[in-house]
Design goal:
- This protein has 185 residues and is α/β, with parallel strands linked by helices.
- It folds into 2 domains: 101 residues, no CATH class; 40 residues.
- It contains 2 helices and 12 strands.
- Strands 1, 2, 3, 4, 5, 6, 7, 8, 9, 10, 11 and 12 form a 12-stranded parallel sheet that branches.
Length: 185
C-alpha cells in the first residue's frame, strides 16, 4: 500500500547536514600614506609618490602629481599644491593645480587660485580666489567637435526649406544643437 502524503512530508523535513559558513575572501589594497603630524613644521619643497596627509604646518611647495594630498582639520598650508586630488579640511593659502579633483570640506578654507577638472565645495567652506575648470583633452572630444559641425550643417537644411516654403519663422541653430522642422501639409 501507499503511504499517506502526510508521512512523506514529515520525512522530508529532516534538515540535511549543515555546511559551515565560509566568508568570502576580500583583498584590500594596502593604502600607503605619508603623514605630517600636528607638531611638525616643514619649510621647503615636499614631493613624493604616495598619498600625503598633512595635520601640521607646511610652507613652500607641494608636488604629488599622481596622488592625493589631504589637509587635515589641524593642518595649515602656505604653499602651492600640485596633485591628482586635493582634499581640504584645514587652512590653505596658495594656488592649487589638480589633475582630477579638488574637494573643500565644510570646515576647510582656501585662499588662492584653482585649476582643476572637478571641484566640490561643501556648505560652510570658505574659498577666496579664481577657479578654472579644464575639460579633459581626448580624441573623443575632437571627434565630437567635428560631429557638431555636421549637425549644424544638417540643421541649416530644414531652416532653408522653411524659408523657401514661406513658413514665416526663422531659427538660428547653436553649435552642438539640432533643429527640428515640421512641415505643414
Amino acid at each position: 500500500m501507499l503511504q499517506p502524503a502526510q508521512n512523506q512530508s514529515t520525512s522530508q523535513k529532516v534538515p540535511p547536514t549543515p555546511t559551515p559558513y565560509t566568508p568570502p575572501k576580500t583583498f584590500a589594497p594596502t593604502l600607503e600614506q605619508a603623514t605630517i603630524g600636528r607638531s611638525m613644521v616643514i619649510k621647503g619643497e615636499v614631493s613624493g609618490s604616495e598619498a600625503l596627509y598633512i595635520d601640521g604646518r607646511v610652507e613652500g611647495s607641494i608636488h604629488f602629481g599622481d596622488n592625493r594630498v589631504t589637509i587635515g582639520r589641524n593642518g595649515s598650508v602656505t604653499a602651492d599644491i600640485q596633485a591628482k586630488e586635493v582634499v581640504i579640511m584645514g587652512e590653505v593659502k596658495g594656488n592649487i593645480e589638480c589633475t582630477d579633483r579638488l574637494d573643500i570640506r565644510s570646515e576647510g578654507s582656501l585662499i588662492g587660485d584653482v585649476v582643476t577638472r572637478r571641484i566640490s565645495v561643501e556648505d560652510g567652506a570658505m574659498m577666496k580666489g579664481s577657479v578654472q575648470v579644464r575639460a579633459e583633452q581626448k580624441k573623443e572630444k575632437h571627434e565630437s567637435a567635428s560631429e557638431s559641425k555636421t549637425t549644424v550643417a544638417e540643421a541649416d537644411k530644414p531652416k532653408a526649406a522653411a524659408a523657401a516654403a514661406g513658413a514665416g519663422t526663422s531659427a538660428s541653430p547653436v553649435a552642438g544643437s539640432s533643429l527640428l522642422y515640421k512641415g505643414s501639409n
